[in-house]
From TrEMBL:
Domain Photolyase/cryptochrome alpha/beta: 121-255
GO terms classed as biological process: photoreactive repair
Keywords: FAD, Flavoprotein
Native species: Escallonia rubra
Protein name: Photolyase/cryptochrome alpha/beta domain-containing protein
Listed cofactors: FAD
Domain of life according to the entry: Eukaryota
Keyword Flavoprotein on entry: yes
Single GO MF descriptor: deoxyribodipyrimidine photo-lyase activity
């Protein structure tokens, strides 16, 4: 009964009011317990501990307005205390759908990942041409911003079969190298407490299904540069938008970061000389160290990791990688994966440092060291088993051990490690040029533009 409607002439109303006050005093302890449960299910910036007692205390001259979201959750908490829930408390009050409750739409996400209240419940890392755990901003960001992470790799059927010209879109040697790289990535993720979910299917369909199954709030991925890859990104954004899932893209396939370029891609020089002149003096970003331990997989959905497919599963013949005598072809010596890539890089850097100076009669030094005078590390760069920045850093460490000695030499010449460093920078710059120029012309707006005039050059 509303106290404002009571009159002094109604003694029964006064008696009823006193009884109501007695009942209100009797339920004070449950209210205190409710305030404690609210602090566990709501982010800390919604409830301030110093003001909780003031909300519970009577205010004769002022009225305290409690936000509707908090009051609704209080009602849910009261109902859950009357009958013991079958599931954990937080699951009975917060839906796995991030769009059902406005409370979880835009939570504060401070730079300190230790604040669990600000982390996403689950996220997906979509591996593409970045099959590594070192220097992987996508993987690190997802682990720092989420309570659970689901790493995924999709073998897209559109990348296999025959092209319109009758050739294999992906040949057996490349497919074998890719399969080995995915297996190695899966092993490295498992060693850090995670795993890799492998599927054969179109990414936009696979990721949408997995995001719905685990209740993912975001998909993390690296951007690519070719036309088909950009189209795939557009399809992912449309599919994730329908599911209410955020898509976060990162850049990690070049030596120089796209955001550090002194020009916009639309105004990028179409020849290597102009590109090299503009990027001269740019600083290479530092590599990102691999995390010692990764977040676990989401518990919701009970998603199976799946097996890495074989050549037969991808529609290719295993005998195509064999020579006529039945033995493995020479290409089989190229083993895919991040583990093999790092070993080859360290070996090449050591060879550059150990080789004696070799120069021509005029004192110049243009020799290139390594197996057959090349690092032969292009396949691992193409699959993202190794990042260009990692190559740069490793060779820079080797060069720094001899640069000081070379600077003190009377002839002022450069040592072998310094020469390898200069050569590697030249090759990586060529690679950056082609990737940036491809990105420039891969957008829909640039399809009718005149193609770039390619110059002769080697690409790492």
């Amino acid at each position: 009964m509303d106290p404002k409607t009571q009159t002094p002439e109604n003694p029964e109303a006064q008696t009823q009011a006193s009884d109501d006050q007695t009942q209100q005093l009797a339920i004070v302890p449950p209210i205190a317990s409710i305030s404690l449960s609210l602090s566990q299910i709501l982010p800390t910036h919604f409830l301030l501990p110093p003001k909780i007692s003031s909300l519970l205390a009577p205010h004769p001259s002022s009225k305290v307005k409690i936000p509707s979201q908090i009051s609704s959750l209080t009602h849910l908490s009261i109902s859950s205390t009357l009958s013991p829930p079958q599931k954990p408390f937080f699951k009975s009050t917060i839906s796995s759908n991030p769009l059902q409750y406005p409370l979880s739409l835009n939570p504060r996400r401070p730079s300190d990942p230790s604040n669990a209240a600000a982390l996403r419940r689950a996220s997906i890392v979509w591996f593409r041409n970045d099959l590594r755990v070192h220097d992987n901003e996508t993987l690190n960001s997802a682990n720092n911003e989420s309570l659970s992470v689901l790493p995924v790799y999709c073998f897209d059927p559109r990348d296999y079969g025959k092209s319109s010209s009758g050739f294999d879109k992906t040949g057996p040697y490349r497919a074998t190298f890719l399969i080995e790289s995915v297996k190695d990535l899966k092993k490295n993720l498992q060693a850090k407490g995670s795993d890799l979910v492998v599927r054969i299917g179109r990414p936009e369909a696979v990721l949408a299904e997995l995001a719905k199954a685990v209740g993912a709030e975001a998909v993390y991925a690296h951007r690519e540069v070719s036309h088909d890859e950009v189209k795939a990104e557009d399809k992912i954004e449309v599919a994730m938008k329908d599911e209410g899932v955020e898509v976060k893209y990162f850049w990690g396939s070049t030596l120089y970061h796209v955001d550090d370029l002194p020009f916009k891609l639309e105004g990028m020089p179409t020849n290597y000389g102009g590109f090299r002149e503009k990027v001269q003096g740019l600083e290479v970003r530092k590599t990102i160290a691999a995390l010692e331990q990764l977040r676990g997989l989401p518990t919701k959905g009970d998603v199976e990791a799946g097996e890495v497919p074989s050549l037969v599963d991808l529609g290719l013949s295993p005998t195509a990688t064999m020579s006529k005598d039945g033995k493995a072809a020479a290409n089989a010596s190229l083993v895919g994966g991040e583990t093999e890539a790092l070993q080859r890089l360290r070996k090449f850097a050591a060879e550059c440092q150990a080789q004696p100076p070799k120069g021509t009669k005029d004192g110049s030094n243009d020799s290139i060291y390594g197996a057959n005078f090349s690092c032969k590390i292009s396949p691992w760069l193409a699959m993202g088993c190794l990042s260009p920045r990692s190559m740069f850093d490793e060779l820079k460490k080797s060069a720094s051990r001899t640069i000081s000695a070379a600077s003190n030499r009377k002839d002022g010449g450069s040592g072998p490690a310094d020469t390898g460093m200069n050569w590697l920078m030249y090759e990586l710059l060529w690679r950056d040029f082609f990737r940036f120029i491809t990105k420039k012309y891969s957008s829909a707006k640039q399809q009718n533009a005149a193609p770039v005039t390619a110059c002769t050059g080697a690409v790492a």
